[in-house]
């Protein structure tokens, strides 16, 4: 698992349940009926011309005893079915794109957040790949509670966060992470009153750790972890 397991998710913990697939890794909560975090890579190999599949569906990877969230659970809720791992980050094949429409990768998301700064940040990340041939590692998730939706309550999070690590490319074509590597960290309200500019919600990885209880970059040397986590994201407005 690249760059570590932020919550030590495992298949033995129902509220920190680990799902690993080729396209991404995530931690899922049985009690919240929703995702805690997801982790994935984005580079040119993952991006292609596959159309958006739009085949939202339950995730058969959940064990017995977990409620299988369906697209209909969102009907009349006022929330979008919001992707955590974006459809646009998995356009290399039909199977890869379809994997992003499993309901374990979907959260109740305020429409103006989903279609505004969240989407803009997704597109910004992909632009780093398209325009500069960068490779990225991304963590994203949700926390907090602002009520529930559906007959089998699905928690609507109050905050959404994302961390993008931009790998450095070595002269031999390899990838590395160093103290000067670009880190983008944002923490946004899950609200229709959100600013359309995601840059206004830049923060540090350390602050996201405090808010969520997660620990990022655990596979990196301790000194490098400390440096990267303390830096406040400063992508220009």
Written account of the structure:
By secondary structure, the chain is an alpha+beta fold. The protein has one domain (about 15-55, about 70-230): Extracellular Endonuclease, Chain A. The chain has five helices and twelve strands. It has a six-stranded antiparallel β-sheet, sandwiched between helices. The chain has a two-stranded antiparallel ribbon with strand order 4-5. A hairpin with a 5-residue loop joins strand 10 and strand 11. The protein is globular.
User: CATH class, please?
Assistant: Alpha Beta
Can you summarize the main beta sheet? 6 strands, antiparallel
| Assembly of the depicted chains | single chain
Strand line-up in the sheet with most strands: 1-2-3-6-9-12
Unreliable runs? none
Radius of gyration: 17 Å
Provide the CATH architecture.
3-Layer(aba) Sandwich
What is the count of DSSP helices, taking H or I runs of 4+ residues? 5
SS-derived structural category: alpha+beta
Question: How far do the termini sit from each other?
Answer: 33 Å
Instruction: Quote the average pLDDT.
Output: 97
Going by CATH, what is the homologous superfamily?
Extracellular Endonuclease, subunit A
* Beta fraction: 15-25%
Approximate shape: globular
Helix content: 10-25%
Instruction: Could you tell me the CATH topology label.
Output: Extracellular Endonuclease, Chain A
Itemize the secondary structure elements and their pairings.
Blueprint: E1 17-21, E2 24-29, E3 34-42, E4 80-83, H1 94-99, E5 106-109, H2 111-114, H3 117-132, E6 136-143, E7 148-149, E8 154-155, E9 159-166, E10 168-169, E11 175-176, E12 183-189, H4 205-212, H5 222-230
Antiparallel strand pairs: 1-2, 2-3, 3-6, 4-5, 6-9, 7-8, 9-12, 10-11
């Amino acid at each position: 698992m690249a760059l570590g397991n932020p919550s030590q998710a495992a298949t033995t913990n129902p509220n920190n349940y680990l799902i690993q697939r080729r396209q991404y890794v995530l931690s899922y909560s049985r009690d919240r009926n929703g995702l805690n975090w997801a982790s994935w890579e984005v580079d040119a190999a993952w991006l292609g011309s596959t159309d958006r599949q739009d085949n939202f569906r339950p995730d058969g990877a959940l064990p017995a005893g977990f409620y299988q969230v369906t697209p209909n659970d969102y009907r009349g809720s006022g929330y979008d079915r919001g992707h955590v791992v974006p459809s646009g980050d998995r356009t290399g094949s039909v199977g890869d794109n379809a994997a992003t429409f499993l309901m374990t990768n979907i959260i109740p998301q305020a429409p103006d957040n989903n279609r505004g700064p969240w989407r803009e940040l997704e597109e910004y990340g992909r632009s780093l790949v398209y325009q500069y041939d960068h490779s990225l590692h991304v963590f994203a998730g949700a926390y907090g509670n602002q009520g529930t939706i559906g007959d089998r309550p699905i928690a609507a999070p109050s905050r959404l966060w994302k961390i993008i690590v931009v790998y450095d490319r070595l002269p031999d074509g390899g990838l590395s992470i160093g103290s000067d590597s670009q880190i983008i960290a944002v923490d946004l309200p899950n609200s229709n009153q959100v600013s359309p500019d995601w840059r206004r919600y830049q923060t540090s990885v350390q602050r996201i750790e405090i808010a969520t209880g997660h620990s990022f970059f655990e596979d990196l040397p301790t000194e490098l972890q400390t440096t990267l986590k303390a830096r406040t994201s400063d992508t220009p407005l």
